[in-house]
Structure formats: C-alpha cells, structure tokens
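Subgroup meeting minutes
Present: P.N., E.W., G.H.
Scribe: E.W.

1. P.N. recapped why we're keeping a running log of single-chain structure predictions: easier to compare across weeks, and new members can see raw inputs and outputs side by side.
2. G.H. added today's entry (477 aa).
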Amino acid sequence: MDLINILKERVTPVVLKDATTHLTEKGNVLATFYPFILSLLKARPDLISTLQNSLNPRLVDIFHSNFAAKDHLLQAINLGLPQHELETTLNQSIAPTLGVLQDLAGSDKKQDILHLLEQNADSFTGLLPPWAKSIVGTVGLSSVGTATSQIQQATSVTPHKKSGFLLPIIALLILAAIAVFLFKQCSHKPAVSTVGTVTESTSSSATMALQPAELHIATGADGKVANCQALVGNQAMLDQIKSQLSSIFGQADICHASADQQFAGELTDQNAMAKVFAKIKGLPNISLVWVGNQLTIQAPDVAQAQKLADELKGLVPNMQVVASQSADAPNAVSKSNAQAGQALASINPDQANANDVVTALNLQAINFATGSSEIPAENKVILDKAASLLKQLPQAKVVVKGFTDNVGKPDANKALSQKRAQSVANYLTQQGVSAEQLTVIGLGQENPIADNSTKEGQFKNRRIEFELINTETSTTN
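Output recorded in log:
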C-alpha cells in the first residue's frame, strides 16, 4: 500500500480546498511532510494517542517545548511560503492524515495504526530526507531513560558471542543519548534570577509551555446551543462552563468537554462567561471561539458580528475581540466546484490516470440540502466529466465515502452519509461507470476534518470523499 500517494489523493485536496495562493508550493510542502509525520508516528506511537485526543492537532502537540526541532522542520521544509501560511498548512494536514490512517487501519486504536505503518514502512521511509531523519531522531528520543531502555533491550536479546562486535555500536548509541540529554538540559535550563537566589522551578517551566484553554460554542437556527466543545486543564473549570451554559441557555449536558493537563486551567476573563453567554443567547447561527486572549465572533452578517463584538469588548477587558462573517457556503461551493471542473478538463482522455480523476473529484463540494441525498445540479456536471474518464479506466476501483457533521444522533448521521454516498455512486453508474468499480461507505460524523463547533467547520465536515484503492493498474496506457 502506497501511503504517500494515498495521502496526496485524500489529504492534500482537503487542505488546499479553500486556498487561493501558493497552491503549488503548499502541495509540495505537504508531499515532503507526509513521509516525516508517518515516520515520526512509527517511531513515537504515543503521539498517535496525543494527536487523537487533541481537538485541533497542531505541530505544537508533536514538538511540545522542543522549539528548536520545530523551527528546524519549518526551515528545512519551506519552499518559499510565508511562515504563517507554512505552519498553518502543516497544522491543517495533521487531523485528516490521522483520519486516513484510522480509515486504512480499520480502527482508531493505536496498535492497529502502528501495525499499518510498520507493514507499509517501505512506502515512506525511503522518501525521508536526511534532515528529517535527524528531527525524527531528536523527537523520538524523549529522554535518556527511553534511549537507555532501548539499548538495554537490544543487548538483552543479543547472543553473547556477538557482543564484541556490538560494543562499539552500543557505546556510540549511549554517547548519542547523552548528547541529546545534555542538549535538552541546556535548551530548557531554567533562568537564574540575578536579584535573588530563587530559580524558576520545573513546574513553572511546564506551566509556561501549556496550551491556552479553549471554548467553542455555536448556536443553531433557533438561537440555542447547537454545539459546544471545551479543552481546559482541570475539572473545576469544566464544571463552571457547564453550569453557566445550563443556567443561561437552560440546556443541560450540552458541552463536549474534557480536562487535559496540556491546557491551561483558566480562560482569560472567565468571570465574564455568564454575561457573554447571555449576549449570544437567542441569536441564530453565531459562533464564539474563546482561546487565549482572543475572542472571535462569527455571524451570517458581518455588521451583526461587529455589533456583537463591540458589546462584548466591555465585558472582557483583557481580551482582543475579533468579528468576522461566517463562511459563505454558496461561494465556497462554487469556487470548489470550479476548481474540480478545471482539473477534470485538463486531463487528457487518451492518457488518463485514475489518481488525477480522484484528486479532481475530491476538490468539489457536494452541498446536500439538510436531510437530503439529492445531488445538486452543478455537481452532476462534474460527475459527468469524471464518469466519462472512469469508463475508460475499467480497472480503477474507487471507494465513495460519505461524512456528516456531528449535529444530530450518530446512528442517523451514519445512515444519512451512507445514503448520500450511495446516491453519488448510483449517479456514476447511470452515466456508464461499472458498478463493480465502486464501493460505498457511510461514516457519519467520524473523522472530521474541521472544527464542528463552528458553522464553517460543520459545512466542511459534510462531504463526500473518493479513494482510489488500486493505483498500480489505473491508467489508460
């Protein structure tokens, strides 16, 4: 199984879906990043659970306080992108990459994903650049204890008669582990006060590295809380959030929340929560994101968002309040579908490659009406073009996958996603694609690619994905 090509087909279109600049550079950056993250997850299986447990996995979850290694990665991987766009692009690829790995492994269990990586290591380890190997090594050796344990395990299973041959290698490994330990000790050495005799404690350093607490709330068309997610460092803060929401909105147990020691235990200006919640109560389709010292408000109308933001500024004096308009779904759909149509039109039918067809299909946005599986007319035009190419590629086997947001009951969402994916497959067969080429899967709200606490994120999660499962024989040549 070629994991890198699969990620290029399934993750790259998702990350670049809304991009308007530097498309080529971002695509090349992602192609370089995939072997790195796969190798790192194979070397550090504990990172799989760490990233799975993060609401919005980012590079900081991988590197934690190892800023030198993170900077090394960004400098080495950059191909002319502005720094912010580079890091944002990589951050946006982590969650869908995990989703694809879980899908291919048939499970979200760490051991199953690790087994998948180990079985298919040949498809990505050979593509790892030399600079990336050093970073994987640095991040992989989290402590001298870990390295020493690995060395001891290696020596314990080595026949005695070969010990003379291995001694130089073992010595070099130990020296390397010591060097890594000393480097980390120096780079994380607490600052010493020049005024008194007190130095910063290890616990203070750890506190400085915490991620800011996060609270995401979205109201539905009825002005009630449709989605709530929180990540804070202690249970007391979670209880306070839930209590305030229940008191203001009259809705119990409406927040998907968890306590995680990687996050701060408090929200900036948290004493104003009740007043902030009261301001958005009853307002339809409002998104509120409370992270660090920034409060972001989204509304369907930018004037409404700005008015609400101005009212909130006096309630949270220590925060920056930002207003923005909610994603314009019709424009986003038109833009995505135009990109898909152009990509399909650029494919030479006489030299068609199924990889290119599937990549183009994944650029589109099939915006089904609420509760409906009827394919919009503009998507039928795209599917017509794809069908004419797939008919010439009878060996190509394609999986059509349906996904929803997390609004509603999981079982109902899974059934709806299956129905929508089947609708797309049925349309392709009506245009002449063999039914034997197509497999349909409905995954419901599993494997989200965006934050379900915002309307924009929900829109992105309601999607159809296409996966080519036999890349070797899918060309017209």
